[in-house]
Amino acid sequence: MADYLSFALDRIAAKTLPCHWIVTPDGDQGYEWCPTCGYYMVRNLRRRDKRRREDYILDGGWRTSHDTTPICHNCGALLDGAMTEYCAEEEIAYYREYGLSDRPDIDALYLSEIIGAMGWDYGGKEHEDRDFILSLAQQLLPAAPTAGGGDAE
Ligand SMILES: [Zn+2]
Q1: Distance between CA 153 and CA 144 in Å, rounded?
Q2: 73 alpha carbon to ligand 1 midpoint, in Å?
Q3: Cα of 146 to ligand 1 centre, how many Å?
Q4: pLDDT of residue 57
Q5: What gap in Å lies between CA 17 and CA 115, rounded to an integer?
Q6: Fewest CB within 10 angstroms: 14, 17, 48, 82, which?
Q7: Centroid of ligand 1 to alpha carbon of 108 (angstroms)
Q8: Cα–ligand 1 centroid distance for 18 (angstroms)
């Protein structure tokens, strides 16, 4: 069931860009960048520090796990990344408090990542979380019987 929902959610999920980060001579900056912003940021840093220009590197471009949902530090684009269990728990707490947002594509992205991050086979609290997240996911999917209304706009 969860596998099917993940697949269905991915079909309607907001598109993400590859996640990059910048290695500087002084270490990692701690920010995430989309490919375009990362490229220009590295170029800028190199210009300002010509003697060490070779030590500024745009790294990443592949999927890693994050404690918060990754977005570009400059333009706010959604970036590709898995959620750590901690991140998934934070997101679940958020959905319990606020419910679905007004962006079904972003909800679909995050719910799919939550489903991917959690250990769904355990009992107790995680079992409650699973039922809660799966019910939210079903509300997002077009064929779901609970989906009300038509296509506005
Ligand atoms: Zn960007």
Answers
A1: 21
A2: 7
A3: 36
A4: 96
A5: 20
A6: 48
A7: 21
A8: 10
Residue 120 has what pLDDT?
63
Report how far ligand 1's centroid is from the alpha carbon of 66 (Å): 17
Helix (H, G, I), strand (E, B) or coil at 24: strand
37 Cα: distance to centroid of ligand 1 (angstroms): 4
Task: Decide: pTM greater than 0.90.
Answer: no
Distance from the alpha carbon of residue 115 to the mean position of ligand 1, in angstroms: 26
Domain extents for the chain?
A: 2-14+83-140, 20-66
* Residue ranges in 19-123 assigned as alpha helix (H): 35-48, 85-98, 104-117
- pLDDT at position 136 is 95
Say how many Å lie between the CA of residue 85 and the centre of ligand 1. 26
Instruction: Write the pLDDT tens digit of every residue in 82-101.
Output: 999 999 999 999 999 999 99
- Position 38 scores a pLDDT of 97
For residue 20, give the H/E element and its range: strand 20-24
pLDDT of residue 121: 61
Low-confidence spans in the chain with pLDDT less than 70: 1-2, 119-126, 143-153
Distance 76 CA to ligand 1 centre (A): 6
